[in-house]
Specification:
Length: 452
Amino acid sequence: MTATLLKEASPPPVGMADRRRRARRRGRIVALAFVFPALLLLGALVVYPVLFSVGRSFFDASGTRFVGGDNYTEMFRDPATLKAVRNTAIWVVVAPTLLTGLGLVLAVLVEKVRWATAFKLLLFMPMAVSFLAAGIIFRLAYDEDPDKGVLNAAVVSVHDAFTGTSSYPTARARDGQGLTKDANGSYRTTATASPGHTVDLGLVGVLPKDLPQGARPAYAAAGQKAAADELRGVVYLDFTRGGGGEQGKVDRQESGLPEMNVEAVRDGKTIASTTTAADGSFRFQDLGSGSYSVRLPASNFAPPYQGVSWLGPALVTPAIIGAYLWIWTGFAMVLIGAGLAALPRDALEAARMDGANEWQIFRRITVPLLAPVLTVVFVTLVINVMKVFDLVYIIAPGPVQEDATVLATQMWLVSFGGGNNQGLGSALGVLLLLLVIPAMVFNVRRFRGSQR
């Protein structure tokens, strides 16, 4: 009887199902304890700002009056916002496409060089540079002054090598000294001359650096007489160092201006042309009888070529995208290179044994097998370029800031950069979030699919 009562009073044995349930419950509690700090930070730094921005977008600039969807309506009526949307679309289409293509090409080529690791390190190194520093670097590189901007220095050097430069861009004639300036920038003599005469053409304003090293004094050339069938003259610098001399007359210490183009003109037509010698002298032979004007073409005085306005309204967005490519090409190359290393080599070798060339292997085998990796890289870069801010804000000068603006910079300018309208800025932030979410969801699904 006692044993029966004890048996009935004892607790029932714990089954395996109950033990597993309790273990799972303890595991969830421990996991939640570890995840809670991260969830707290995520809520404070991401969830709360998102919800606050969504709510703030329905209020006016002061944040006191509810305006409903007026900020969203105003957003698409503002020309600056529409330009930001257009520029963002250009970024989304151009930058990820170029980066993915460059990364793919470089990843394939790097496999075929001996110093592959050093080459990868060199291309990946810009990732270590902050966007602020990169923006300052490219702001200087794109400077329009060839003495400061390295790109324009290269462009000017190539241009001058093929086209040449004007000899004396700062030269000009003295008033009342026998030369008059035409509307096209050329100079011609006010009085005509005939064969057998000499003409002295004095100029001033020539910088010492523009005077060729081989220039010689013009005094001896000015004293020579012309033959009966020729028209002679001298182009000289009507300036004596240290003072002295007589204006309009060739003095002993005054230099000739070599390599100056000179033309003999009659009835508005160029009859003959020549180039001045080292002492500035020139002559036209076998001219017919009659009167001629001597002209110095405008090409002698054209301002030097200054290069390309990289940061002008037309090129500022492509220029900033170029800076972005410099930073992120190494990132795309490394990710695609990792996918390339995982490709089955037997498929590539089988294609080579079947007689396929490298281009066919690249186009029909490598690219299709790398399609999942290329898609992930492309979508990741799309998400990144939608949020680009630093490069646009730093590289674009103030006058063209509106021409280069994207959604992120426009959101900042409207909210804090002078607009002081946090309601409209919050609406822009919500728009940017809505544009980024589909790409993020797509990327997450791709990652989950690759894990399965």
